[in-house]
Structure formats: structure tokens, C-alpha cells
Amino acid sequence: MIKESVKAHGKRQLEIKQKVLFDRHAKEIRYRIDTWFFLPSALQINPDFYATGDFRRSLKNYVRLRPPTEKIAHLSEAGGAIEILAAWLAAHRDDPALTLDDYENTLKRYALTYKRALRLAVKLIEKNPQKKNTETVSATLAAIRAALTAYRALAPLAAPAEARLSSAAFHYCDEYITLMTVQYLRRLATPADVPARAAIRTLWREETAYCRAHYPASMPNATGKNEDVLYRWSALKKYINRYLYLDVRRKKGNPLLMHTVYAVAAAIAMIFATFVAFFWQGKYGALSSNLFMAVVIAYIFKDRMKDIGREQLLRLFRKWIPDRRLLIYRDEKTIVGDCRENYRFVEHELLPPDIAALRERGHWLQLLNDQRDEDILLYKKDVTLHNRPALFERTQYSIVDITRFNIADFLKQIDNLFEPLPLPEDENGDSRGERIYHIYMIRHIDYAGQQASELVRLVVNAAGIKRLEMIQPLQFVAEAGDKHGNGTDELRS
């Protein structure tokens, strides 16, 4: 199962997320994603002005795991995450074999579990009218307070390991869950009609005061720019979330096969040139002007044959020679998967029929259906993950595949943001219009024998991304009975 979200990440970045669920018993999981960008020719994103290397530099790839799902009320109960953490700390408080990574990862795992439990609890109240009552809100607040108190009570158990390993992970995790609590409580208390609003604000003030007393560097200053606070918060999030993120290392596609292809092309060209030299030498002798001209012409054709042969062989072996290969590591030495990427421009005539038909649905102006001029850029991504014990250690059997694409290069040739309109001279008001461009994106996903496609319209101007519009959401065959949804700023299916 794959769930996908597409959203604008700032003005210049597009973020695409796939949540991929793993079969616990499967040895590996594999999925392929083909993304077509349909770009107006005015942007000049074509082979003459835009190289595939430019596209590769615009991509950021992340792969992370998902923390365990546990109800907020169960965290501090018997057999819950707090009790498990306490038992682990007690067992390892005097363990000389305990490593810094094991210690910190155990605490980070709890902090991430708490954050997910908190988020789901708040979301349940916000999205479910049946749960939006005083009883549910009061019970949630009591569970939050109990979980925070229980975690902070473990400080003496963690102290020996902290001292021995020179770590402050326990307090970093405490700071993280405190800030997340403040953030979600403020979000929960924002609607004026929320039940028990006074109780929510009371707990929010308590946790704010706790943060101010124990972690003053994380408290914003009402009179300052708070750049140091934001920097600390960003660093803290990265430190905690590092447990979930897999290490993605970038490699060239397949250097051995690629060089083999180059060698074969060179060998064929050299055979041709040598054959011509031998043939003409036998006909005109070793020293003659005819032989000289034949050798020169042979070498000219040899270079052309080498280049053409290289192109043809690369096209033939494209499947096995990706433009870039990403190796996915769980730790320094354990490879758990790889991702093969290819980028190329495609002619309209070579589009798969279903992709071409889906593209036609995107037009909202009929004259564009009659004649259009656009370039097509294809990004192919083939991901394989191996179900190894080290991969899903006490996490969900799922991953989040995140791709961020910076569209800054797409905007270099955009004209002025506003242009005058051909209105009558006596027309009142502003006679200028905002110049926009439509970039269409079709994503086709092939996973576990199922296929699905989605169509997104990306509206851009000179400043960047203006909005996203979902035309056809992603829908697998097994989900054909579900209703289609729409969105603008964030699109999910």
C-alpha cells in the first residue's frame, strides 16, 4: 500500500511524500515511480538549455522510518513505553558495553513515539466530532500530563549512563517532548469552541513555564528576531529525528557497465578504421596519397561511429545504467536498499497512451487542446528495499520516501510578474494582470502488481509556486470504489 502527498515546500520547492507499507513477511519491497513534467516552451526547459545534471542537482532525497503507534494514554500505563524504557535504563545503568548510539537511539525512539501519540490524540479531537467533548479532552490532558511526569521521573535512572557516555540525550529528549507538547496544546486550544479550553490553556502554561525554567534557550523573545531559538529548534529536531532517517549515499549509475559499453563502441569504431587501412594498403601500397586519404576518412568516420555507437548502446542498456544510483544504509555498513534514477526529455509521440490521455484532461482552456507547445521531462525512480532485521528495529513496517524538487531553474525565463491588459481607455481600475504559467505533473506508480496515476497542475509565476491543484488524485485499482478528493496547497490521496 502506498499513500502519497504533494505540497509546496516554500515558494521554490515541491515536496512529494510516499508512505509505503511493508509486508512483514516479504523479503523485499519494490516500487517504480515515473514522473512526467509538461513544461511550457516559454520556460526553455529543453535539451538545448537544460541538462539532466541540472535536474539532478535540483533533487533532494530522504528515506525515513515511522515511529511506533501507541495511544497517549497507554504510554504511562503498565506495559507501556515508559515502563519499557525504565526497565531498559535500569538494566543498562552499569553496563560497560552500552554504546552511545544504543543509549541515544533508545531515548529518541521514546521521544518520537510520544510525539506521534500526541499528534494522533490531538488530530482525533480535531477531526472527529464525536470525540470533541469535555470527557475526551480531559482524559487526553490527563494522559499527556502523566506521560510527561513519568518520563521526567526517569532522570535518576539515566544519570549514570549520561555521565559515563558524556551524553545529554535524556534532557534533549525532554526538551523536545516539552516543545512538542506546547505546540500541540496551543493548536488544540486555538478554536474558540473546543471543550475544556481553560484546562488546555492551563496545561499549556504549565509546560511553557517548565520550558522557560529548564530550557530558556528554547523560549522565544517577544522583542527579538529569535534566530538563535529557531536555529536551536531546527538542530534539536534533526538530532531527534536522525534515528528514523536512513543514510542515502549517492553513486554513479553503473560505472563498470557504462565503461564496458564505451569500450565496445570504441572497439567497433577501431575495427572499422583498421579494416579500411588494411584494405586500402593492400590495394594501393604502404605509401600513397590514396592510402593517406583513406586513413584520414576512416578516422573521421571512426570518431562518429564511436559517438553514435555509444549513444545507441547506452539507449539499449538504459535499464541497467541509471543516471544516478542511491544506496540506502540503516547504519554505517548495513545496506538495506537502493534507488535508481533516470532523467530524459521525451517527445509527445513517445508518450504512453494512458499518460497522453490523462494529460489532455488537464486543460481548462479549449484552445490549448487544439495546439500547444510544451516540453516533456521524464524522471524515473526505481526503489528496492530489503526486509532486514536492522531496518525495522522497534518501528512500524513502513517507510516514508521524501523527494524535494527545487523549481528555481524552471523560473529563470519567466517574464515580468505583471503585464498591462488590453482594456478600453475609459475602463476604471487596475488594467494589469498577473502572468502565470501552468506546469503539469503526471505521476505513475507501479507497486505490488498495482498501478495508479495522478495529475497535478502547478501554477507558477516569477516569484515561485503560487498554488497546487489536484486534477486527478492517485487511486489504485483496489481502491476504485473510493471517492476522489481535491485540494490546493496540500494534496493527499
Description:
With 493 residues, the chain is an alpha+beta fold. The protein has 3 domains: 2-65 and 331-492, no CATH class; 72-243, no CATH class; 254-320. Helix content is 41%, strand content 25%. It is built from 12 helices and 15 strands. The protein has helices at 52-57, 81-92, 100-127, 134-152, 155-165, 169-189, 197-214, 227-241, 255-284, 289-316, 353-360, 367-370; strands spanning 2-8, 13-21, 28-40, 59-65, 247-252, 324-329, 335-346, 374-386, 398-406, 418-420, 432-434, 437-447, 450-461, 464-472, 490-492. The strands form 3 sheets. Strands 5-6-7-8-3-12-13-14 form an 8-stranded antiparallel β-sheet. The protein has a 5-stranded antiparallel β-sheet with strand order 4-9-2-1-15. The chain has a two-stranded antiparallel sheet with strand order 10-11. Helix 3 runs antiparallel to helix 4 (134-152) and helix 3 (100-127) runs parallel beside helix 6 (169-189). The radius of gyration is 30 Å and the shape is globular. The N and C termini lie close together (12 Å). Residues 478-493 have low confidence and may be disordered.
